Amino acid sequence: MNVFKMTPDDVSALSQITLAELITRQETSRMNYILKQPISQLTLDRLTTGVFARYRDDRLQRVGSQGTN
After folding, report:
1. Distances (CA, A) of 21 to 16, 17, 24, 48, 65
2. Which H or E element spans position 60?
3. Fewer CB near the terminus (10 Å): N or C of the chain?
């Protein structure tokens, strides 16, 4: 359920979801995505601003600017 696009009929579900659960769902989804990307296999000494910039640019091409919020 996307709590940001709920109809009035969905409001009752809000009484069953805690803020902690919502945050956990969102962050777990983000982390799982990143863990599947090649950048996650790099050692910390190889992570540079250039690597992050390429990751960002590649992601923007795949998901568009709407996916950066």
Report:
1. 10, 6, 5, 33, 26
2. helix 49-63
3. C
